[in-house]
Amino acid sequence: GAISSLQRQMEIQESELRRVIAEKESLQNQLREREMQLKALADKYCNLTQEQKQEDIVVIMEEENRNLHQIVTEQESKLAEQNKLIGELKATISKLRAEVVSTRLHLLEQKQAQKEIQSQADTLQHKELQTRVALEQITAKFERYRNKIIQATFSVEGSQDPPGELTDNEVLDAMQKIINERTEFQHMLKKRGSK
User: Fold this and answer.
1) Does the keyword Iron apply (predicted)?
2) What pLDDT is attached to residue 75?
């Protein structure tokens, strides 16, 4: 939207610049026509016969010269204004073009940043999936290991079945008890000399 707005402004300024340049060319054409008229008038007066009064000729030429000089001055003033306006319009167009380039560069940077963020999000999502799979595998292994411990602990002769669901601490206590009993039994056998 910003780029479109800048481009519209630039098109308006360029259209105004074309209009002003056309006016300048028209003024230059008018100036050339006036100069040609002045030259034609000078030629005309040069060709006047000696019979015409020289004073009348001088008065007419001076009047015509004043008129033409005033027209030339006005045209030159208008041309100066047009040149100034053209300079301002060109500066505005250059500024608008720079803003368009800057806005496009900013948009490209934003798109690049968005791509990097999306890439990071995809990587994190992949790692999360891998972590979940690993956690499920570890949980399954832990449950199998726990069940084996419970089975080994409570399948010993003389042990009673657990009353219900056991906590991890209860399983560890029962297992430690069996280890202690077997250690004592081994010591006792060693004392008696049995292999």
Assistant:
1) no
2) 81
- How far apart CA 32 and CA 26 sit, in angstroms, is 10
Do the domain assignments include residue 67?
yes
Determine, yes or no, domain membership for 11: yes
Domain assignment present for residue 143? The answer is yes
Tell me if residue 193 falls in helix, strand or coil: coil
The encoded tokens of residue 23 equal 């006016």
Residues in the chain, total: 195
| Amino acid, res. 81 | E
Per-residue pLDDT band at 131 (split at 50, 70, 90): very high
At residue 132, the pLDDT reads 93
Q: Do 93 and 7 meet the contact criterion of CB atoms below 8 Å apart?
A: no
Place of tokens 């080994």: 152
Half-sphere exposure of 46 (CA within 13 A, CB side): 6
Cα angle vertex 177, ends 176, 181, to 5°?
Answer: 115
Distance between CA atoms of residues 57 and 14, nearest Å: 49
If you average pLDDT over residues 42-55, what whole number do you get? 63
CA angle, 95 then 97 then 98, to 5°: 65
CA distance 166 to 147: 10
Judge contact between 153 and 178, C-beta under 8 A: yes
- The parent domain of residue 43 ranges over 3-152
Q: Per-residue pLDDT for 126 more than 90?
A: yes
Q: What is the pTM of this model?
A: 0.43
